[in-house]
Request: fold
Amino acid sequence: MEVWSRLQMQAVLVWLSVALMPSRCAGHACSPPLGNLASGRTLTTLTGCYGDARPLLRPCPSRHQGALESPRPCPEDPHPPAHMTDDPFSHPGTWWASGAARPQTERDEIRLDLETRFCLSHVVLRFHSPRPRAMAVERSGDFGRTWETLKLFAHNCSLEFGRLDDVTEPGAPCTSRYSKATPCTGGEVSGLPTATQDPVSAPYYSIYTLLARGTCLCHGHGEHCVSHNVTAVSPQVAGRCRCSPLYNDRPWRPANGSSGAPNGCQKCECHGHADSCHLSQRTWLSSEGTSGGVCDDCRHNTVGRRCQRCRRGYHRQPSLPLNSPHTCIRMRPQSVGPWCNPRSGQCTCKAGVGGVRCSQCMPGHWGLGAKGCQPCVCPQACDPKTGQCLDRWRKSHSPCIVLSVHCVCLTAVIRISVLSAHDKGSHAEVQVKVRKVLRSGQVPLSLGTLSVYPLTWTSRGCTCPILNPGMDYLLAGPEDPETGRLLVTLQSVVALWTPKLGLNLSKGLRHECP
Reply:
């Protein structure tokens, strides 16, 4: 049985409390705290404790009186540049020591490569040796090709750099505050001794600690600085706090440090069909600054700015949500052309074919195939697969009536008012109001709104016989019991309703055809 010590329990509780604390950056601008940017990074110098800092076979200077010894491998440098960035609390007695200053220039150099841009607050150098008489702090934004002076330090600014001293001229780029010879050790900057041609007795410098205080450049969108090879945990920012691939629905902006507005990145609505998007300035301006993202490389057979439409040859399944990977399916060969309504999914079907997916024959047609469906050669309906006439309904119901001198066999006889007509692409649908039911077959009819389906729409492009909205008609025609639809065919009787027609129709319904 494992027993935890009290110290272990306290450490776990502290970790849990930190993990459960809400982010201090939630809902407003935020920047990481300052830290030592030099910690963990490699410093390079012009010289080392044994002379030239390059790790080659070189003549090591003897500290004894006399000339240099013959070339031999130098021992390990006891005071390397890494000692300037180690932990001053764990290693308080370590320092970097330079070699002899170069006779031609009497200068040395410490270079810190930060690898990317940072917000630098201040630089502190704690010397082990006396501070130099003159020193410059410079920065480069192009990896060392060009340099910009940040601050000059000199015992005499006018003599060393030809500049004014900020002690007497506030704001001057040079200062004499940190270049006194005292203290001999522990000072922040030291003096530069007189030049000498003797490499053994030439001056050298030694530094306990180099501290570069600053923070990473997150533009108000980051809470912590992470290593360059660690992925940021925020879903809205990536790399150096630029918008993540799927968060480019509006232009990137830094957070507002004055108001605290976070100005976060906005996610593109790609319905789960894309992993990235880009900002279109034209779309952003046309939307009056509300949305400008365009999804990249839509998957699952989708296209469009938001991957909201099916590509050519595919149509949408209305039963599935738009973010389903199976929302777009391949069109059937019975559809006309590669186009379907992007919202309803209704495809334009071939002659005699109906249904959202063009998967069945329209009433009055049979034989679904590559060329569509064939019209039934029957007074009413036929079997949609074989084309055989379905005469059993007519025999069982005797729907024959006498109109004038003609005997017409019809299933349904109603009085209607035409309300509207709608083009469904593959068929037409006419909305009517049933005012009187004179006869009905297997399809139950009642007063109220009803849809009738003119079959001539697919073959002739018209609702023949004509049904004009706003008019009252006598409608006598066949029905399709399988779909529960009332049909309008060329054999249907459509006549303007008049009281006299109604009287004659009532008499005709009382007699059967011979």
User: Anything to note?
Assistant: The first helix runs from residue 6 to 20. The chain has six helices and 34 strands. The CA atoms of residues 166 and 172 lie 5 Å apart.
